[in-house]
Task: inverse folding
């Protein structure tokens, strides 16, 4: 094994060791308990693990997406009602996210980018503190990164869209807005195919130039890397991507169908995954919306007033979902300018700070917040500002890259597509800092690329000056 490869693996091993140590230390330092939506996931998981089906407050439910609760129920079946089990799984998946970021950086950019991005993610305070929170963030982020890695694989085998269909179903079961994954997959696959076609064209061009230069020399036989075949154009790449997208959508539908059938039996309504879409749309799109969560049953003039059972704290899921969804859509259509301004306000709430660490430090088994938790907020806010500064630097380098060197377009384009899709979700629905969590690994990749690109650019300029 070459020294450079050994050095790379040693550095990666050190990064993963540090990531593991920090996450384990945090889990045993801060004994977080589930609250709010996280508590509902936990309760649903206990119901599933006990064989009573997916219930909340004793009633069958589909309000919270079942994916995360089902995942928790598997752990509870094996380890019992033990909150440490999912936290330790968070450590494992969190460290694996660091490894996946390394692989993505190496595949899309270069080894140095992967190692730097993995380092940034390993040391990210928000990624660390969430290991003690029993929430969807780490599991969802893991499958998102794994899905992107599968997309980046250079293969035309049908196993690729089949795996992507399963990944899309898992993502949608955890966060239903990922039901649009086939559309995202279409765009990601298209730019991947076009990139592979261009690389083969460049290889063919390089081969022909070698033949042209050396044709009068007796040097033997060249190996043609592309064997002189004709290259597919844009329409061929688009057609192939569409075909795979239909297969992805079919696998997703087949995977989601059993749950949709269960919901139809329970509610006598077609509910693909959850019944919280309408209420989420309404509470974030009304005359009193401020771009973040509010109680939809207390909004002045809300059609939902009086529909909440004060004893159980729950409601008629289907009726509320329909009423709230219809009211939210009506308000958006009647107030397009307010909706647009509110969309930017929601986006601001996503990026403004790292206040979501409260879910880790404000709710512990002691019944109160973590003692001396101020340092966690301060460190998280400081690194969040560094993250935003890093993104600003990346945007500047990406702009320069459009005109000089033109490097890393496939990786950047893939990440941008995911970023845009998430941003559209923030814009329409709700804005809160924890929704940024799955994007942080991708931001680490972009920032790392820009730093490596900048340093290598300086080295190129210096060599030219010598």
Result:
């Amino acid at each position: 094994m070459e020294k450079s490869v050994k050095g790379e693996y040693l550095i990666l091993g050190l990064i993963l060791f540090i990531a593991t140590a920090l996450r384990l230390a945090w889990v045993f330092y801060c004994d977080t308990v589930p609250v709010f939506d996280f508590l509902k996931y936990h309760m649903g998981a206990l119901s599933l693990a006990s064989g009573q089906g997916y219930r909340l407050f004793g009633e069958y439910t589909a309000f919270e997406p079942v994916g995360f609760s089902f995942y928790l129920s598997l752990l509870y079946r094996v380890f019992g009602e033990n909150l440490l089990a999912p936290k330790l799984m968070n450590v494992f998946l969190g460290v694996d996210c660091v490894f996946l970021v390394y692989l993505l950086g190496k595949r899309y950019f270069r080894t140095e980018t992967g190692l730097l991005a993995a380092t940034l993610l390993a040391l990210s305070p928000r990624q660390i503190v969430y290991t003690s929170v029993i929430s969807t963030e780490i599991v969802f982020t893991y499958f998102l990164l794994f899905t992107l890695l599968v997309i980046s694989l250079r293969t035309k085998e049908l196993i690729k869209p089949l795996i992507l269909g399963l990944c899309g179903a898992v993502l949608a079961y955890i966060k239903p807005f990922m039901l649009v994954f086939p559309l995202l997959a279409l765009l990601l696959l298209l730019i991947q195919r076009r990139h592979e076609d261009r690389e083969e064209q460049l290889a063919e061009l390089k081969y022909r130039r070698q033949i042209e230069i050396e044709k009068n020399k007796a040097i033997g036989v060249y190996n043609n890397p592309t064997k002189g075949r004709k290259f597919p154009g844009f329409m061929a790449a688009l057609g192939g991507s569409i075909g795979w997208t239909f297969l992805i959508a079919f696998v997703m539908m087949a995977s989601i169908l059993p749950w949709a059938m269960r919901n139809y039996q329970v509610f006598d309504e077609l509910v693909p995954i959850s019944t919280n879409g309408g209420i989420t749309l309404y509470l974030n799109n009304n005359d009193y919306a401020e771009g973040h969560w509010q109680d939809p049953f207390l909004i002045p003039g809300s059609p939902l007033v009086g529909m909440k059972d004060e004893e159980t704290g729950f409601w008629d899921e289907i009726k509320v979902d329909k009423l709230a969804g219809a009211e939210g859509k009506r308000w958006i259509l009647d107030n397009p300018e307010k909706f647009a301004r509110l969309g930017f306000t929601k986006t601001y709430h996503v990026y403004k700070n790292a206040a979501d660490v409260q879910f880790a430090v404000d709710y512990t088994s002691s019944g109160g917040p973590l003692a001396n938790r101020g340092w966690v907020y301060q460190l998280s806010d400081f690194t969040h500002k560094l993250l935003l500064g890093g993104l600003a630097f990346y945007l500047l380098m990406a702009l320069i890259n459009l005109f000089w060197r033109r490097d890393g377009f496939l990786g950047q384009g893939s990440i941008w597509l995911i970023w845009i899709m998430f941003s559209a979700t923030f814009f329409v629905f709700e804005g809160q800092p924890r929704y940024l969590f799955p994007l942080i690994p991708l931001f680490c990749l972009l920032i790392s690329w820009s730093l490596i690109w900048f340093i290598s650019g300086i080295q190129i300029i210096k060599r030219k000056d010598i």
Q: What stands out?
A: Residues 181-214 form the longest helix (34 residues). The beta strands are 55-56, 59-60, 308-309, 314-315.
